[in-house]
Design a protein that fits this description.
heterodimer, A: about 110 residues, mainly alpha, B: about 350 residues, FAD/NAD(P)-binding domain, five-stranded parallel beta sheet, elongated
Chain lengths: ~110, ~350
């Protein structure tokens, strides 16, 4: 094949209007507080696992909302359920319970998470 | 006593200050360039944060004008210093000689068409906060069909040095959230987005409204300033922004886009400031002696300021400042003229 010096790359643009997000709806039903997140980052900053891994609860919540869970769900594998994020969340989200509910709704198992 | 005071600008600040001056025993002469009193408040349907009807605030004010001489459709032609007084000439042929003038000329709504990339005045389905409020107030059915997805663009002509408005307009964040919730009340099935840089929910109950918007109304907040808007053959809009929390560009099809046009300095304030020889700030708003401690007195004796003429303000702040300007004028007029 002739090398023209460029290639096709898939678009990195988020397309959110066509996102059918039944699993997020199910999560929302179970954890109404998930939409209260203001993305302050307190959870990520206080995360015991976050110092050593890419774990960020803020990013997980956002990617679930955007229907891009594949990118961030594996992060949850690093969560030790210590609950420090719950102590610092200014919106009072029960983050520990939320993480467990995410596991339940998104069917995380031993391979891809907790 | 029955001393005249000229109040220029018949919006909430001018009306409230005139009422207070009248209650203190003066005869205010209130001058309004538009055909009716009430200023921009006349265009509001419901007010943040509680959804009180604007007319519930404005109507009692308009019914309480006894003892106030007011002129609508009237411009100020000149303001001149004559010894210890100011001579104000009006377009209706009258003139007044007073010791104190209060400027309450408010603000101009930022012209959203200046942000050409958003397509206001080009694309039919791009409207402004004022247009949406007009529609809410009219109670008419929406002029567009199939409105499923709607977006609010915060900071249009605010925090925008290139557009000539560096300041935060202060009220648009909470107005957008208010209008978004109201839209959801009318169209529960619609998906409503707010594109913001920061959410400045500074006032009492504003943060509560934000929480309600998230929890009860399901408004979706995207942190990122809209960069451009384009239109497809059916008149639907494509909106581009960066989801800065996600760190990826985002493109979304919208059926209606509302631009939150901010507060720009009123053009009339600048010309009045020139006539009276008082200081205009670099941002175009008039400058009080001290923003913190002396917010109602302008740089020259006998000229007073209240409301958004000195920068973006909420309605309660404006009304409070109007009352304090009336007291400052009272104090000034009780002080004998220095010989």
């Amino acid at each position: 094949m002739i090398d023209f010096g460029y290639g096709l790359t898939p678009s990195a643009t988020l397309k959110i209007e066509n996102v059918q997000n039944p699993r997020f709806e199910a999560l929302h039903e179970l954890e109404p507080d998930v939409v209260k997140c203001i993305a302050c980052g307190s959870c990520t900053a206080s995360c015991s696992a976050g110092c050593f891994t890419e774990m960020s609860l803020r990013r997980v919540i956002l990617s679930l909302q955007r229907g891009r869970e594949k990118e961030t769900l594996p992060m949850l594998r690093h969560c030790m359920l210590c609950g420090k994020c719950q102590l610092v969340c200014p919106r009072g989200i029960n983050t520990r319970h939320l993480i467990l509910s995410i596991g339940k709704v998104y069917g995380l198992n031993e391979e891809d998470g907790r | 006593m029955n001393q005249n005071v000229v109040v220029i600008g018949g919006g909430p600040a001018g009306i409230e200050a005139s009422r207070k001056l009248r209650d203190l025993g003066y005869t205010p002469i209130l001058i309004e360039s538009q055909p009716a009193l009430g200023g921009k408040l006349t265009r509001w349907d419901r007010l943040f944060p509680d959804g009180v009807e604007a007319r519930a605030i404005l109507d009692p004010m308009l019914q309480d004008l006894d003892g106030i001489k007011y002129f609508t459709d009237t411009e100020v032609l000149s303001i001149n210093r004559l010894k210890d007084t100011w001579v104000v000439k009006l377009s209706n042929g009258l003139s007044a000689q007073v010791r104190a003038i209060l400027l309450t000329t408010g603000f101009d709504l930022f012209k959203a068409e200046k942000k050409e990339e958003y397509g206001y005045g080009i694309y039919e389905r791009v409207i402004t906060n004022a247009d949406l409020e007009d529609w809410y107030k009219s109670g008419a059915p929406l002029q567009f069909d199939n409105v499923h997805t709607i977006g609010f663009v915060h900071c249009v002509g605010s925090r925008d040095e290139k557009a000539g408005n560096r300041q935060c307009s202060k009220v648009c964040c909470v107005t957008a959230v208010k209008q978004a919730c109201e839209f959801k009340e009318k169209y529960p099935d619609a998906t409503v987005y707010c594109f913001y840089m920061d959410l400045r929910m500074f006032g009492r109950k504003f943060e509560d409204l934000y929480l309600k918007a998230q929890k009860d109304y399901g408004i979706r907040f995207v942190r990122g300033r809209v960069s451009e808007v384009s239109e497809d053959i059916d008149g639907h809009l494509f909106v581009k922004a960066e989801d800065t929390l996600f760190g990826k560009p985002l493109k979304i099809k919208m059926d209606l886009l509302v631009l939150m046009a901010g507060m720009a300095p009123a053009a009339s304030s600048a010309s009045l400031a020139r006539m009276a020889g008082i200081t205009t700030g670099e941002d175009g708003f008039l400058v009080p002696r001290s923003i913190v401690g002396d917010a109602c007195r302008a740089s020259r004796e006998g000229i007073f300021l209240a409301g958004a003429v000195t920068g973006p303000k909420t309605l309660p702040e404006t009304l409070g400042e109007a009352a304090s300007a009336a007291l400052a004028i009272d104090q000034f007029l009780k002080t004998p003229v220095k010989q």
